[in-house]
Amino acid sequence: MAGLVVLILVICVLLLAEMARLLLVRRRLVRRTDVFRCKVRVTRGSVPHFSHRWPLRAGRAEWKHDVLLLHHGLGLGTAHPVAVRFAEDAIEPVQPVSPLRMGSGAVMLRLRLDDDAVIAVASSPRAWEMLAGPFIAIAAQGLSPTSPSGGPDRPWG
């Protein structure tokens, strides 16, 4: 009986240690300046681990050259690299915003992947430069979404 109690205590301590590790990993990731909050859905083709619908929970993403590293899951402990060929178009407002739950003024960028699949990555308007990553010249054809005029071709308001 005492052995069973010790075993249960050891399991509890190991679970607590793993939870603390996951929280530490998440905190480090969220505090980095090159990581942004986003949601990703597949618009053409198929991409492992991603759906054609917007996910309920937002993940985090960061650019490593032309690879978008998408973090999601419990404690943001899972990372999926997505090799991007080019940005399909400029950053645009997300329509409709309500099912996305990314706040008012959410923006989206469609990315063509190396295997010809297309994903849509949505983020807050404050993160539009990080969203564009290495494709900033193409994605930001107008002015920033936070500018008063919204740019010559992009009515953001």
N-to-C order of helices and strands:
HEEEEEEEHH
Major beta sheet summary: 6 strands, antiparallel, barrel
Rg over CA atoms: 19 Å
Mean pLDDT: 80
* Unreliable residue stretches: 147-157
What's the count of strands? 7
Give the termini distance in whole angstroms.
Answer: 68 Å
Walk me through what this model shows:
With 157 residues, the chain is an alpha+beta fold. 25% of the residues lie in helices and 29% in strands. The protein is built from 3 helices and 7 strands, in the order αβββββββαα. It has helices spanning 2-31, 128-132, 136-139; strands at residues 36-44, 59-64, 67-72, 78-87, 92-93, 107-113, 118-123. The chain has a 6-stranded antiparallel barrel. β2 (59-64) and β3 form a beta hairpin. The longest helix is centred in the N-terminal third of the chain and has 30 residues, at 2-31. It is elongated and about 70 Å long. Mean pLDDT is 80; it is low at 147-157.
Write the layout of secondary structure elements.
Elements: H1 2-31, E1 36-44, E2 59-64, E3 67-72, E4 78-87, E5 92-93, E6 107-113, E7 118-123, H2 128-132, H3 136-139
Antiparallel strand pairs: 1-2, 1-7, 2-3, 3-4, 4-6, 5-6, 6-7
Summarize the structure.
The protein has 157 residues and is α+β, with helices and mostly antiparallel strands. Helix content is 25%, strand content 29%.
